[in-house]
Each structure stands twice: as C-alpha cells, then as structure tokens.
Amino acid sequence: MVGDKARVEMNAFQRNESKETLFTLFSAGDDPPKGDFPLQKKSPKLCGSNYPLSIAFIVVNEFCERFSYYGMRAVLTLYFLSFFHWDENLSTAVYHAFSALCYFTPVIGAIMADSWLGKYKTIIYLSIVYVVGHLIKSVGAIPSLGNQAVHVVLSMVGLFLIALGTGGIKPCVSAFGGDQFEEEHTSERSKFFSIFYLSINAGSLISTFVTPVLRGDVKCFGEDCYALAFGVPAALMVLALVVFIAGSGLYRKTPPQGNVLLEVCKCIGFAIKNRLKNRSREIPKRDHWLDWASEKYSKQLIGEVKMVTRVLFLFIPLPMFWALFDQQGSRWTLQATKMNADFGIYVLQPDQMQFLNPLLILVFIPIFDLGLYPLINMCKLNFTPIRKMATGMILAGLAFGLAAVIEVKINETDMPRLVPKESLIRVLNLAKNPVQVTIQDKDLFQQPVESFQNPAEYSKLILNGEQQSLHFTLQHQGLTLAFNYTAKEKSVYSLIVFEAEGSLSSRLITDLEAKPENGLAAVRFINGLSQDVNLTINSRRFIAVQKNYSASEYSLLERDTYNNGKCITETGEFPLELGLLDFGASYTVVITNISGGAVGTWKSEDIKANNVHMAWQLPQYLLISAGEVMFSITGLAFSYSQSPASMKSVLQAGWLLTVAVGNTFVLIVAEAAPMAQWAEFVLFTVLLFAVCIIFSIMGYFYVSVDPEDLEETEEKRETSSRGNTIGLVTQKTKL
C-alpha cells in the first residue's frame, strides 16, 4: 500500500502550505493559470458541516478502486502459477514487472492532469482504461475461452491497462479531494485525508481477505474460480467509476496548471548539456553543476532544484527496501502454499496472509505515534528520521532472515533434488509375507520388507546413464523370482510386490517427483481386487481402476477429510473412507478387499504433508509492517520537510519511482539469478543490510536544512545580482 501512503501520509506536515502545492502531487507550483476561467462554485455541505458533499463520492470511489486493485493483485501470483502453469521464478518476475509499471505510470497521469486534461477528466478517462483492463483480465481467466496463448495475451493486455489506469489516477484522486475544500477549511481538509487513508486501508484489508476466498473456496469450470476472483474487483472498479461520475455536478474543478516535474527535468538536462558544451579550461568554473542552467532558468528555480537533488540523492539506496517489501505478494505467498494453513476453526488460503499487512499498519501507526516515539523522546534518545528509516530497513531485513529460516524448515519435507543419473526407489510389499528385494550391482534394501509395512524414505538409485535396465530379485517363502525393469534418471519409482493367482509378481510404477503445488493433496489408487472398480471421491471426482493391482493416475484434491466416497464393483456399491488428505502430501491407497459391506483399504503417505504451520509467517509480517511504518511514513515526512513548497511534488514522483525500481530489481534477480528460495531470502537480507549501512553513512553526512531559509537566501542573492547587473549595464552605457 506504499503508493497510497505516498499520496496521503504527508498531510499532517502540509497545513501551512498553499492548496495547490499541498494537494497536487506533481503540480506546477506558484504560476497562476493562464486565460479566463469561471469561478469555482461552492459545493453543498454534508449535514450542515464544512465538509463538501462531493468528498463522499471521492471517498467511496477510492474505497472501491483500492478494493479492485488489491483484490486483483492478491491472487495474481497464484494465477500465474496454477492457471498458466508457469514456474515460481517466471510468476514472480511478471508479478513484479506489473507492480513496477504501476509505480512508473503515475508520472504519466500527473503530466496529463497538470498539463493537459486537468484532474477530473484524467480520472474519468484513465478509470475507463482501468475498467477495460479489468474486464479483459477477467475474460482471460475463463478456461474454456481459447488456448493458453489466448489467456496469456488477454491477461497481459489487461494488466498493462490496469497498470496505466491505477498508476495514472494515483496522483490525481487525493489531490482532487483536497481541491474540494475552501482555503479557510484547512482543519476539515486535514481530517478528510485521514478518512481518505482509512478508505484505502479498508479497501485493501477487505479485498485481500475476500478475493482469495472467491478464488479458492468457489469452484467454476471444475477448478479454482479465477474468473470470479478477477470479476468481482472488475465490478468494484465499474462501481468506482459510476460513483465518481455521479458526483460530477458537485465537484470544484481546477484547470491545468502546468507541470513542475517537466520544468525540473528540463532544467537538469539543460545544465548537463551546457556543462558538456563548455568544458574548456578557459571558462570559469561555477559553484554547482546546476549553475550551468543559469543562462536559461531563474536562480530561484535553480536553487529549488538544488534542494531537491540533495534529497533525491538520499533516495538512491531506498529501492532495496521496496524490493523486499513487495515480495509479500509473490515469494511470501508462494512460501505460504507450502505450509499448513489449518487454524482449527478456519483454513486460510495462502494468498490471504497478505491481509495482515494493512491490518498491522492500522494497529502500528497509533502505537508508534502515541506510544513508542514519545517513549523514546522521554529517554532523551536522538531518534532522527534517518535513524528511523535505517531501523525500518533493519526490521525488513530481519523479516527476510526469518523467512529464510522458515523456508529451510519447509524444505525438510520436500523430495530430494535429483541430478543426472540419479533416481529414487522404494518397495511396497502388498503380499502376505515378508519379501527380500535385491537389485543387481546396487547395495539397497538390506532388510526384508514386511507385509504392508509403511515404506521408509526413498532410496537413491545411481544409474550408469540416462536410463538403465535393472535386474530385480525377489525372495519370498524360499522362492526366488527375477524381474527386469528400465529406470530413467531424475525419476521416482515404487516397486509393488503382490500375489496374483497364487504366485508372486511385481510392477514398477512412477511416483510424483515433487510436492503437489498450492497446498493440494495428491492421491492414487491400486486395485488389489480381482474385478475392476469405479471410485467416487467426491461429487466431482470419478476414477476407474482396472483389476489385479493396476494403479491409477494421481488426482489432486483440496485438503479435506474424505469419508463419503463410493466404490462401485460388479457385485455392488460400497462406502469408501480415505480419511484426511493433508496439505502438500501424496498418498497411495490400496484397495485390499471387500468384507462386511465395506471396502478395506491401506493408505501410504508417499510424500510427507506440510508440517510447518502458516502461523510461523506472522513474525515476519510483524517485522516488515513495523519496518514499513518506520521507513515509509518517516521517509515521506522527512523528504517533504527538506524541499521547498513548489518542489514537494517532485519528491513524491521520486518516492514512487523508488518503489518501481525496487520491483524491477526483484524481477531481475528472479529471472537472471535463480537459486534456492532460502538462499534468495538470505541474499536480499544481506543486500538490505549493506544498503542500510550505506544509507546510514549518507545520512550521517547529510545536513538538514530549512527550505524557507534557503529560499530567502536565494532571493537575497538574486536581488543583489540584479543590482550588480543594473550597475554594469549603466556603466557600459556611459562608456
């Protein structure tokens, strides 16, 4: 929610500024609009107060839009993973590419609003683009519509339009809300931004909890209902647009004022260009590189740009914090899919854990402002803004350190990673007596395997090539039988030993090579009966298994207790009880007999269930949310206090761009340097700690300034310079 905080958190520090500077993130500054414009009408008030009625439409619009954005983004990573069947690295990279784009596009929206259309029309037009993107995204999630290429194209087009829409209106909505207040109602304006911020958090909190439920608990087209999970946010965005248009007649609409961000960029560009043109040693040096813009731009503007560049220089290390922070929706969500989500009274979806961040932010802000910071001040500790931000970085780094520890514990239940010429094998003895299994030239299975013995862990099988023919010998009740099977590298096998028609036999079947994804359970059946069976696990899953120890394919099921199944044979229909199929586990269920009107089964756990509870993610969410409060709010307030009134919007642009750069860094790491997940968490931890040290050193040498004092100094210099210039001109005239 950092982009939203960038719009509203600084208002406590803005009460003494001019309205246009306060509430236009990328405003032009002090120049009045050119041309004749009609006087702004006064909006009707809410219940006799000084609050314009128009702000009700703006607040509702913001709630619906934030519900739309965060609800869609909450399920995005799992959508890539499950619907497109992309791997985790590609899913993470595309997720962060989308997030980065959402923080690059505010610059476009600001230029449109301040230089061309004005805020109102910009919000309308880009909201329409936003709605179209949502609709395309929702249609692209319908499984029956075309092949995967069609789904990918529709989804990418939809995401691009959503990024353009949400980023484009980001700098406009809160500023437009501030425009509704008259100059004398500064107190009401400040309270409005508190309500506005509450609507942002409410939309984020509710959507990140509800949308994963629509995805996981509702089934459509026989699988997770991503079409509904994207469709509901699309409907909320349509509602946001309708509500905003409904208040059109009540709004105070200010005309475009011009864009100071463009002026700053032009000034910097001209200074660099002019300096490169005048590299001769005969040309006198200037005190500051920006002074090379003095031939074209005023000294006041150059002085203000100098102040801004000092703060922007401090922004250089900040993207690393956002690189870690925004992985809550990607890497941390993927980590949650490999954990136990059963909280007793409720089973949490892995992407629902993201709701903890907005919830904790709402809790931490008053705790920090009213409790922690006053306590630190009472202890006479100089907890400067730079130190607060550095502490926020440390907390985020510690959060990723905890994530790395949890990832290591999760990996303990994973299947081993196989290298070339390696396979895994185990024995399932379904015969009535112990069996001794040997493989020629392999030192495996030293002890006899008991009848229906729970299998030990898989044994590593070393091959002499990509595949190898193996000679198996079975010793059973004094008899020795031999079988030949071909094993391939990087594969997992179970050797089934059974009795058929009075003699011992065997079959080599292929097992799963990795845990089921997204916390699903996998189950397959071996039919030990002498007749074919048809199995019904639930109302949507039907499996046919042939007789004489044939094995079915694996079926992926939601974690649940399945005791209402049916087994249909030639002789009748019988109840089938499977018990609990747990998160991330793989099972083999052997149908052994039918007696007493019931089916006899034996269940083996092939891959262990997820045994690390999702609640262990809570400490890392606590740390990173506390770090966000100390880093984001403090950083915005500090940078705002260090810039002149006309340049505060430029720093807002710089702040949003640090988020975009941080997300870009994550996608580069995910695609260019894939590694074990715990190692990647450690890498980000180390990088953030290193950046924190650099930032602390930069902050140590940074000298805080009062922009008003510097502005007065620049004015005096400019006045003095003008006096000297007049004198020179007069002297030349006399000559």
UniProtKB/TrEMBL annotation:
One of its GO terms (molecular function) is symporter activity. It is a multi-pass membrane protein. One of its GO terms (cellular component) is apical plasma membrane. Its main location: membrane. It holds the Pfam family PTR2. The keyword Zinc does not apply. GO terms for biological process: dipeptide import across plasma membrane; innate immune response; protein transport. InterPro entries: MFS_trans_sf, Oligopep_transport, POT_fam, PTR2_symporter_CS, SLC15A2. SUPFAM superfamilies: MFS general substrate transporter (SSF103473). It catalyses: carnosine(out) + 2 H(+)(out) = carnosine(in) + 2 H(+)(in); a dipeptide(out) + 2 H(+)(out) = a dipeptide(in) + 2 H(+)(in); an L-amino acid tripeptide(out) + 2 H(+)(out) = an L-amino acid tripeptide(in) + 2 H(+)(in); glycyl-L-leucine(out) + 2 H(+)(out) = glycyl-L-leucine(in) + 2 H(+)(in). It is found in: Apical cell membrane; Cytoplasmic vesicle, Phagosome membrane; Membrane. Keywords: Cell membrane, Cytoplasmic vesicle, Glycoprotein, Immunity, Innate immunity, Membrane, Peptide transport, Phosphoprotein, Protein transport, Symport, Transmembrane, Transmembrane helix, Transport. The chain crosses the membrane at residues 67-86, 92-111, 123-143, 149-173, 194-214, 226-251, 307-325, 355-376, 388-406, 618-638, 650-669, 681-703. Belongs to the major facilitator superfamily. Proton-dependent oligopeptide transporter (POT/PTR) (TC 2.A.17) family. PANTHER family: OLIGOPEPTIDE TRANSPORTER-RELATED (PTHR11654). Proton-coupled amino-acid transporter that transports oligopeptides of 2 to 4 amino acids with a preference for dipeptides. Transports neutral and anionic dipeptides with a proton to peptide stoichiometry of 2:1 or 3:1. In kidney, involved in the absorption of circulating di- and tripeptides from the glomerular filtrate. Can also transport beta-lactam antibiotics, such as the aminocephalosporin cefadroxil, and other antiviral and anticancer drugs. Transports the dipeptide-like aminopeptidase inhibitor bestatin. Also able to transport carnosine. Interacts (via extracellular domain region) with trypsin. This is Solute carrier family 15 member 2. It comes from Tychaedon coryphoeus.
